[in-house]
Design a protein that fits this description.
The chain is mostly helical. The chain is built from 12 helices and no strands.
Length: about 200
């Protein structure tokens, strides 16, 4: 899943929020002293990885990857992440019980207050994200297209992401249906995982 889902699934706990946000920037054991993470941040990194593992293995995610594979090939998973954040953003209130306009500024505030805890690359991404308000703009096709093209500029090989908005439009209803089946399963998995990780 992409940034919005990871943020929401951190349950508004600052350590989890930070650790989950920087999860892709932490290599190896998050408890290693070289990372200088708090216990809450370590748990957040582990939660991030649990979310990614569950997502990658889920059949509804695999079905959307298959739809996108002819264009995006090995980068289809990156497109799925962004597309699913769109459907979360559009239906944020019924899916979470919170408004997107209330949640997003609170998330940005946590990142801003704890900016010193972010690795440099994560800090730069947070600055861009907040300045351009990525998460609010995930509601709109233009915001999705901008995110896809941004990721495309950072891939090592041609990704097809720069034109993936075509598939987003063509398969919109199918992708929405797969997301609607996947999201409750992910939420349940995260509730169980957070409880397990926080009890260690």
């Amino acid at each position: 899943m992409n940034i919005l889902a990871h943020a929401y699934l951190s349950d508004r706990q600052p350590g989890l929020v930070i650790g989950n946000f920087i999860g892709d920037f932490i290599k190896g054991n998050p408890k290693n002293p070289r990372h200088n993470l708090t216990s809450g941040e370590v748990t957040g990194v582990r939660l991030h990885r649990a979310i990614d593992t569950f997502t990658d293995a889920h059949p509804d995610v695999a079905a959307v990857r298959d739809l996108l594979h002819p264009r995006c090939h090995k980068y289809a998973g990156a497109a799925v992440d962004i597309f699913f954040d769109h459907f979360l953003a559009v239906d944020f209130l019924p899916l979470t019980g919170e408004t997107l306009s209330g949640f997003v500024p609170d998330f940005y505030h946590v990142l801003t207050v704890h900016a010193a805890r972010l690795p440099p690359a994560a800090g730069r991404m947070a600055e861009y994200m907040i300045r351009q308000d990525w998460l609010t703009n995930y509601q709109f096709a233009e915001g999705i297209d901008r995110s896809l093209k941004g990721v495309s500029r950072r891939t090592a090989y041609p990704s097809g992401l720069d034109t993936a908005i075509i598939d987003f439009t063509a398969y919109y209803d199918q992708i929405a249906r797969h997301f609607s089946l996947f999201w409750p399963a992910l939420v349940e998995h995260c509730q169980q995982t957070r409880t397990l990780l926080l009890s260690e």
